## 1
Amino acid sequence: MPPSYPPGRPAGHEDAAGTDPRGGAAGRVPRTEESRRGGWFRETVTVMVSALVLSILIKTFLAQAFYIPSGSMQDTLAIGDRVMVNKLAPGPFELDRGDVVVFVDPGGWLGEMPPDNRPAWQQTAIEVLTWVGLLPQDAGHHLIKRIIGLPGDNVVCCSADGQLVINGEPIEEPYLKPGTNPSEMEFDVEVPADRVWLMGDNRSNSEDSRAHLGDPGGGMVPIEQIVGRAFVVLWPADRLTLLSNPEETFADVPEAS
């Protein structure tokens, strides 16, 4: 006698596929509104935590934004610019003459900082957001200048034509603020190992290596104090630009003897 099946269930349609006679997949519990909200919340928290961790890792090892508070690098950088700094130079990438770098105050360059009169909660919020990389680093204990002399270089001001001379070769500096001389102060320095000679592009308004010749270290900045190389102006939007190295300026400079 042929097998019998419940009405409405044709032969060969057993429950092998896991269907439930009442409709829907066997064992599947309909999601409630509460469970859907919980899933959305967990996904949102996961995304936010992942983004936060990624931001901290990038700031710590790869790149960091900095705020420009002064005019010492005009017209290359303007007051209020936000620049991004490549923290792999120095490191995997070498520093070159002409690089614009952010460095930690080697001691006494910035003087006494004015008091911060903002409310305590605002200071704390800014510090936290800066620490995780969501806000640019304020000047604080950092400065930004251009590398002019590398370890072993002889840097002199000035030639008969008023140019800087590096290892006997005078250089043209197109990045200087228009109307600014290479230097009003004469100097003749030898850059020691593991240090660099730094100058601002607005030479008449830059407290750089020249201003610290009499300090311990003779105005030279230890390479270990360099945070990284600035490579782009991020903000304001109308100033978005790459900070390329002026290789032609130093192309004829011989290596230090």
Note: Residues 33-62 form the longest helix (30 residues).
## 2
Amino acid sequence: MSLTSLPPELLLEVLKHLERDEDLYHLGLTCKHTHRPAFSMFLKKHKIDDPTDMFNCLSAYQYPPLLLPLIRASLWIKDIRHITCAVNPGYDRVWNDVRDLKLDWPHRLLAGAFESSGSVKWANGVTKLLDAAIERGCFSLDVNGGEGLQKFYQEKEPDEMPTIIIQNAHKGFKKKLTSSLKTIASRMSLRSKGLSHLTLEPKLPGPHLRNIDLNYSPMFQYTFYPWTLKMFSNNASTITHLSLTCPYVPTHIMTHFLSSITLPHLDHLSISLFVYQDLLTAAHTVRFYDLVKFLERHPSIESLDLQGVEKPETPSPILKNRILPRIKRIVAHHVWINTLIGFLDRSPDAYPLIESIGVTLEYTTYAHFSDKQHTYEPINGALRRIAQASFPRPITLELQLTTKRGMLEWFDDHTSLGKENSVISSLSCVSALVLTTRFYVCFGREEVYHLPGWLALFPALRSVTLRDLRPEKDGYRLVDDKPLLRRMAVECPTLELVNTINLGTLLDGAERDVGQSY
């Protein structure tokens, strides 16, 4: 009788006799009939939920040394679509996605001073896991966390990247397995007659990776960076979405990264170096002309979101070459908006597909803290530039209110100027407005009171989206939505639709027709 013919009850009894992690691991690799039971026994032993019982979601708070090799070997599970590695310590995470593989790295890995050799060994284990997922058809890669790894950034990469090979040694295991089976086999007069080897799901031909999100990621840290460049190179032909939220990456690494990759089918690019509690510095940014050169090489980009990248020295630098010919949506600092829209002066058809323009202050670097009244004045310059431009169709204007300082004064200044003098009254190209704030910015009762009169200044406004407008911290209901919508209907005769998203107690509703009677 062969091992494959053992009844499940007997097989489980065999597994109980394998006390060492190595024995369970190798038994899971040896035979397709023991693969699932052995790996499940391994996970149960270390109090790790079986991924197949948790919507393909794995969360590990312990660190058995063979956990990474075991997960890599079990990645033949079908329908894996997305993998997230969270390595940030200090707080719990809640996973919302399903059919994903999630790795929640144990806090002990990041405790204390991390020796270089330890970080290299850990990095090699993580990258081998990511390689296994990508090779088997993963099309969305999200690597986040890593705030605790900031101290491992180096101004200069090591001359030689150290490597570590996790060996897959099976020598001597068959003998151990036979010994473990001997007692039970003799009782039942059984004899093991060979093993059918496990065949993993084959690697899929060609690259499949499309979406990459690196959020506070360690993937630019020196132990990961060579793998990161190789990963982008291997999947360059399929990547369409790239999002980088890496405020602590040294500038010279970002310069090298942007000059080293070319993604011919990239249609969405998001770069955020915004840190609300810190002032941004020249040591951690993306230089203006480095990014311009990258955009010149990627004419396929349709959506661009820039937060915290370097502000050019001149208010509106002139671009030598046309960039972003297929752009549909852009959100950026007002100086970037001035620069891009200014290109229309030389080439009126530079942006034939443009649909949406967003303007932000990024106040941690660029706002004037000493002048509360004029904090939002720079946005007015971008609005003038937009009003003077000629667009092929009406556009959506997105305004990101990034600080409480000066917000009320800005609303009041425009309503006081009135339709005759406010720059907002010149925005006949704007048919839709999206108004949003940072999560730490309160949109108080006074701002709400000024909102209808301020919206009335837009001459052709048909719809308004209010997103993430957070009420004051005291929990007081700032306004009842019916009176506010009634005021909007009276003061904004062209307005047809108000869409509210994540407003908490500020407004209660998702979509309102302001023409409706209340």
Note: The radius of gyration is 29 Å.
## 3
Amino acid sequence: MASLVNICSVNVLDNPSKFTDPFKLEITFEVFENLAEDLDWELLYVGSAESEKYDQVLDSVLVGPVVEGRHKFVFQADGPDVSKIPQDDLVGVTVLLLKCSYMEQEFINIGWFVATEYTELELRENPPTTPILEKLERKVCTDDVRVTTFPIKWVKNQDDEASDGGEVDGLTDGVRELPVDGRTAENQSADAESAPPVRNLAGILLQKVKLIVKADMCAKNFFSFF
């Protein structure tokens, strides 16, 4: 059965911002039929690439009842708890994951790189032993968004065969690009890789070689704001 929900766009508001500021995501989605259950949205911050024990669920929200049509809302969540992040991983690049579930089944997760750095050159060149939170700013890198979709049962009595494989809204299930900054889903190309679980997506995004490249790119873009 084709997906009943299509994520049209996710805009990151107030970006860049202070490290301690809340995350604000403006989410636009469309529903092709009235939904019997609420949509469960969750925002997760990857505290360290080394272990999922440092992952933090920043917040979750139920949206419903949801009727057929286009909808938009702002999902706001407090920043991560610094005490739960390894000190060596506080500054640098990590991943922010937004996922959505229906009837306790995750059908999409969206990943962004997040660059956290000091705004002052002296602190960037000579990082303090103890992080100075008020001097840190973060930037969500919206130029490389990764989306993973999963086939689910949209109807309670739907059999297993109806939910296996196939395409979702014309895009093969897997990792693809998400339209951002107001662009619509039309004319977006699909990157049809195998669909990994949520935490594995973070692991893929944080592969060491890619992390080094992205850290450099994000840092250049980050400091161009000042």
Note: DSSP finds four helices and twelve strands in the chain.
## 4
Amino acid sequence: MVKTDFKYCPQCKTEYEHKIKICADCNVTLVDEKSQDIPLEKIEWVEIGQFPGKIFGEMSGEILRNNNIPFFLKSDFFSSAFNITLVNVPGAVVKLYVPENDKENAENLVRNMTL
């Protein structure tokens, strides 16, 4: 993230004067830092949690999505191969990954959801 004297829309990346609080196009709260677009293959992904099924992983992902934090879920073989979304499949684990620079914020947001 790059700190400047402007505010930015986290969705459309439009730059605004610092006194403006809401994006005119997206109707979302502006942020102080402009995210830098990094190619996907250059992002360092870190695991921040494990879940006993895909449902809890998706719930945590929704929290991250609502806070503009990129993520992906990685399921074990049975969950991904057979598209099982049950919660209590013995040994089933879904892992949640976020970019390394978003790790602390993401962990705070989903702290109560992980194993």
Note: Helices lie at 54-66, 77-81, 103-110.
